[in-house]
Write a structure and sequence with these properties.
single chain; mainly beta; Porin; 8-stranded antiparallel beta barrel; elongated
Length: about 170
Amino acid sequence: MRGLQASAIAFGVALFGCREGLPTTSGAESAPSLSRSSGAITVQPLAGKCDTSFDPPPLPPPPALRQVDTGTCQMTHLGRAAFYAIQDIDLASGTQSSAEITFTAPNGDILRASSTGTSTPNGPGVAFNAVMSFVGGTGRFARASGSARVVGTASFVTNTSTFKFVDGWIAF
């Protein structure tokens, strides 16, 4: 029954987002509310920026590698959050996907996510673009859903990356 309920909510969010005549700006005051048996779920804009670091790749770099990123993010609805990700990066094809992503809010609530994207050479690093989907978590994010486009850069000189969320939304 929960799966059917979650599907109905996701369908409602998708249907609402496809209606013509909606305002082009979004904010918490204009976000739709959807009902569920345990209370209201509100779709809200999501924005933020993350700064991460990672271990240097081996030299010469392999065609594909698994990379662990850690760092901090400043995000709406989470505040200053700890970031942890395991990314599978295919250097040969310029693609990446996540094996695990978590954002831990200051109160300990965890928001889980997954992502897929592409990267292109950019000086001594790469520029990347991905779509991140929010897929539950703990505490207030137990039933979270949403998505955001992620754009950023990674430096192989400093072994750091910076990215921001664009056109993001979250429901919890």
